[in-house]
Every structure is written in structure tokens, then in C-alpha cells.
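Record type: monomer structure entry
Structure origin: computed from sequence
Chain ID: A
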Amino acid sequence: MLSEHLAIMQLGVSLPQPINCDFCGGEHFNDSCHLYSMENSWWEQELHLYNQYEEESLSNIENVLMQFMKASQARFKANQNSIQNLEIQVGKLVREVTEIPFSVTREKTL
């Protein structure tokens, strides 16, 4: 066997390197390793927990946003009602001022 190896080396041909698993050092591919499957399982669990946390965060953000939108709509409606009331009051004042005779208003200003 040694002589065969020397003969192959002299020809410039290299022997295939043995396959070593990066996880356990065994002679198999990484995806065949029981440690690899355990590590994948761990990562899948972590990823699931992260996704679940992200969904909860989005849900919380959506809830806060919905509350903000409702409060904003309520304030807008209240402001709209206040503006309408002010318009009505200004209209009444304009009518009352126009009904006052011109001579009376002129005498009071002089």
C-alpha cells in the first residue's frame, strides 16, 4: 500500500482526501451527522421563538397604532364640532351686527 501511494505521488495524482465531519470529526458528510441535526433543531427552535417574538411585537405595534388612530379620529371629530359651533356663533354675531341701525353705531363710535 505504501508503495502504491509513493507511485501515485510520483505521477502527480493525489488521493482523495477522507471526508471529515466539521461537527464531530467523523468520516461522514456534515449533513449526515447527528450533531448537525441536533444543532439544526436548536436553530429551528431559536428561529421559531424569534419569529413568534417578532409577530407579538408587530401585534403590539399594531394595537398601539390602532389606539392612536382612534384617539386621533376622536380629537379630529371634536375639533370639527368645535369649529362648526364657532362658525354658527360668528354667523349669529354678524346677523346681530348687521341688524343694528347704522346711525346708532355711528354715534357710539364718534
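Annotation 1: The chain has a mean pLDDT of 76.
Annotation 2: The chain has three helices and no strands.
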